[in-house]
Structures are given as structure tokens and as C-alpha cells.
Specification:
This protein is α/β, with parallel strands linked by helices and about 425 residues long. The protein is built from 17 helices and 14 strands. The structure holds pyridoxal-5'-phosphate. The site of pyridoxal-5'-phosphate (PLP) has 17 residues, from helix 4 and helix 5.
């Protein structure tokens, strides 16, 4: 029996609680789990038996969320983490080593650009940023030390849609895994594994939870990558000294990445999601498709209205017919281009700041993917640490305002933008 998305978002991974019959997934607020006996404990610690030991590794509430997201993404397994940024480090961790690099799209969430261009250097890792519309440049950037190719399905913040099939082709030819950040699209709008992604990462903080209540992340493994073939991924293919020489890929096959991420990644990096956060995210996911549909309908209405406004120089939303990426929507995200886009004001930086101050219904926050409409001037906030060249390359130049369109009445959002644009012009 295969269920549709709307059914799976409510049911996948969950069942009535075996101990109490509780219909909703309980919040298992516990640190540790009692072993049946010493042999059981030994088997768990040897990874010979799967079960709960300690909540830094696994927790029943968190496990339901992992299975639900894995199912919705069409993956084999998933690991939940404490944030989207934790998920990115956890995704790279088994693949990289000192001297290794990741080839990444230049169009990424500002925080990811900072994480990849600055912080990962402390691990001896590096990133090369490339325009992912230039497939030759992506291929040319890959060298013997490259261990992954990284992009976003719908890139935050510039309304850019990555041609995932084409990029997966380049990664595949080089024998490398493709990691896709699917935060802005969610599995309702885009399923990167169907386009060749090896791993999918999420900031669950955004649309998955959907109402701005938690910080969380998820990594989904397609289970399709051969970690042994190239010899480039020894953490997964070679004997692991911390587990008596166990070889993860040989032992766990399509679940090797997931098991490694729990047994080594969560155990030693400790970027664990707590059961309370998993609960909120599970609540959110139950209505994911309903919310995403409304986000998309509203985003189209607001973007179309802004496009005709005399103060607006450009609206970068792939859901608009005028977008240069419009032709990728039916193939990459057939249910819509999301709820996030940017627009440029002819009057530049100061007008953007005035607009953000004058908006009433839109909240000025560094977040996205909330039921509430949100706005931010990226150049003075999230993308502040970047050089002007990096800002413009990331679609966050000084005259750019980013909006995350909520699920309110579109007419109310338009009225709010209308009055704020008048004030910004005054
Ligand atoms: C927010 C975000 C992240 C980081 O997630 P956190 O949960 O804030 O750590 C990564 N990628 C994208 C596309 C995001 O929007």
C-alpha cells in the first residue's frame, strides 16, 4: 500500500503508543532507557541490536520525526539535529577530512555562506563557491579533494531554482554525493532525491515546523550512494576503530550514512534534537501541504502586485511568468515555487530600511517559513557579514528586500505593502 503525501505527513513513522494507546506521539522526555539485561546493553553498544540507549543518540519522539521526514523525502533514513546549521555540519562530517573541500552554489542562505567560507576552515575543510547555472564551472571546480557538491533546491533568498537534474549529473560523473538543502521548498514542493540528490538537509526551524516555534534540522539519506567505490569516503567504507573495526557501508548498506550519523556523529558532536522540538515539528508537518499551498497562492498574488508597482525595480520570484527560472518550476518544484522571494526598490538602501520600518502586518525578523508574513533587509542583517560582491552574488544586494509570505489573507498583505511603500517614498 502506498499512501499519498497528505496521508504520510499525518501518519508516517507514528502509531498509537504501544504502552498507553496514546493517539498522539508522546513526548518521551527521558535521557536514558533501561536495558533488559547486561547482554542487551552489550548488543546495543556493539550496534548488533537497534534500540534506545541515551537521548544524545536516539529518542522515540525524535525517531518518529526522522522517519516521517525520510518518508516524505523518499529517503531510506534520516537523522534529526539541533538546527539546520547542525544538519549541514553533520551531513559533511562523514564525508570530509582535513584538506577536503565541498563545491557549493554561490546562491545560498547567508548563514551557510558564512559557515562554509569561514567556520569550516577550522576543521581543515574548505568550500569553493560557483555559479550553479554554469555546469562547466561546477565540473571544473571539482578536484581530487572534493568530497561533496552542495546547493539549495529553491535558493534563499533570490527566487533561484537549481537545475537539480543537471547538477546531479555533474556530481555523479565525478563520483561525488550531491547534498541539497530543501528548506525553502519542503518535500511538498520539491523532492530532490527524485532528481539525483544523495542527501537532503533541512532547517526544520522553517516550513517543516511552520510557525516559528523551534530550532531544528534534519538530514535525509537517499541510501543510493556507493560510499565504497571511489575510496574517498573511508569513514563509511573502512574499519571504524571506535566500533571494533566495523565497516559502516558493508554492514548497514543503504542505511550506512544514517547509522554513522547517529553512532559517530550524534555520539561525538552531540548536535542532537530534543524531544520537545521534535514534537512541535511533528505538529507542524501534519499540515505541511495545506500551508505550502496557501504560501504559494499568496506569494504569487503578492509578487504579481509588486511587479506592477512603480517603486519596485524587480521581483525575483520563480513563480512569476517573468522569472528567468519559471521554466524550471514544473520540472523541479511542480507544486509551486515556494513562499519566499525578494524585490528591489528603485530608491535603494534607504528606501528598503524605511519600508521595513513602515510595515505593520509583516514582522521584521531574521526567519522565514512562518505562518506569519515576515520581512527582512538582507544587506543590513543576515547578509551583513558578506562583502558587497558576495551579497549581490547571493541575490541580497543593498536595494533588495526579502519577504516570506505567510498564510494570511493576501489582500491584507498587499494593503500593508501598499501603505509601507507610500511611506518609503515619502
Ligand atoms: C535557516 C536556514 C538554514 C539554517 O538553519 P537553522 O535552523 O537556522 O540553523 C539553512 N539553510 C536555509 C535555506 C535556511 O533557510
Amino acid at each position: 500500500m502506498t499512501y499519498g503525501f497528505d496521508t504520510l505527513q499525518v501518519h508516517a513513522g507514528a502509531r498509537p503508543d504501544p504502552a498507553t494507546g496514546a493517539r498522539q506521539t508522546p513526548i518521551y522526555q527521558t535521557t536514558a532507557y533501561v536495558f533488559r539485561d547486561a547482554d542487551h546493553a552489550a548488543a546495543l553498544f556493539n550496534l548488533q541490536e537497534v534500540g534506545y540507549i541515551y537521548s544524545r543518540l536516539t529518542n522515540p519522539t525524535v525517531a518518529v520525526l526522522a522517519e516521517r521526514v525520510a518518508t516524505l523525502e523518499g529517503g531510506q533514513g534520516a537523522v534529526c539535529c539541533s538546527s539546520g546549521h547542525a544538519a549541514q555540519i553533520m551531513a559533511l562530517f562523514p564525508l570530509m577530512g582535513p584538506g577536503c573541500n565541498v563545491v557549493a552554489s554561490s546562491r545560498l542562505y547567508g548563514g551557510t555562506i558564512t559557515q562554509f567560507s569561514q567556520t569550516i576552515k577550522r576543521f581543515g575543510w574548505s568550500a569553493k563557491f560557483v555559479d550553479f547555472d554554469d555546469l562547466d564551472a561546477v565540473a571544473a571546480a571539482i578536484d581530487d579533494n572534493t568530497r561533496a557538491v552542495f546547493c539549495e533546491s529553491i535558493a534563499n533568498p533570490g527566487g533561484y531554482i537549481t537545475d537539480l537534474d543537471a547538477i546531479a549529473g555533474v556530481a555523479d560523473k565525478a563520483g561525488l554525493p550531491l547534498i541539497v538543502d530543501n528548506t525553502s521548498a519542503t518535500p511538498y514542493l520539491c523532492r530532490p532525491i527524485e532528481h539525483g540528490a544523495t542527501l537532503v538537509v533541512h532547517s526544520a526551524t522553517k516550513y517543516l515546523t511552520g510557525n516559528g516555534t523551534v530550532t531544528g534540522g534534519v538530514i535525509v539519506d537517499s541510501g543510493k550512494f556507493d560510499w565504497t567505490a571511489s575510496g574517498k569516503f573511508p569513514s563509511l567504507s573502512e574499519p571504524e576503530p571506535a566500533y571494533h573495526g566495523l565497516k559502516f557501508h558493508e554492514t548497514f548498506g543503504p542505511l550506512s550514512f544514517t547509522f554513522h550519523s547517529i553512532a559517530i556523529g550524534l555520539r561525538d558532536l552531540g548536535m542532537t534534537m530534543n524531544p520537545q522540538a521534535a514534537h512541535y515539528t511533528l505538529m507542524g508537518i501534519e499540515t505541511l501541504s495545506l500551508r505550502m499551498e496557501r504560501h504559494v497562492v499568496n506569494a504569487i498574488k503578492v509578487a504579481e502586485w509588486l511587479e506592477t508597482h512603480p517603486a519596485v525595480a524587480e521581483v525575483t520570484y520563480a513563480g512569476l511568468k517573468s522569472s528567468r527560472y519559471a521554466d524550471r518550476v514544473p520540472r523541479i518544484c511542480p507544486k509551486g515555487a515556494g513562499g519566499l522571494f525578494t524585490f528591489r526598490l528603485k530608491a535603494g538602501y534607504d528606501a528598503c530600511v524605511k519600508l521595513v520600518n513602515a510595515l505593520d502586518l509583516f514582522s521584521h525578523v531574521a526567519n522565514l517559513g512562518d505562518t506569519r508574513s515576515l520581512v527582512i533587509h538582507s544587506a543590513s542583517t543576515t547578509h551583513r557579514q558578506l562583502t558587497p560582491e558576495q551579497q549581490t552574488a547571493a541575490g541580497a544586494g543593498p536595494d533588495v528586500v526579502r519577504v516570506s509570505i505567510g498564510i494570511e489573507d493576501a489582500d491584507d498583505l498587499i494593503a500593508d505593502l501598499d501603505q509601507a511603500l507610500k511611506q518609503a517614498a515619502g
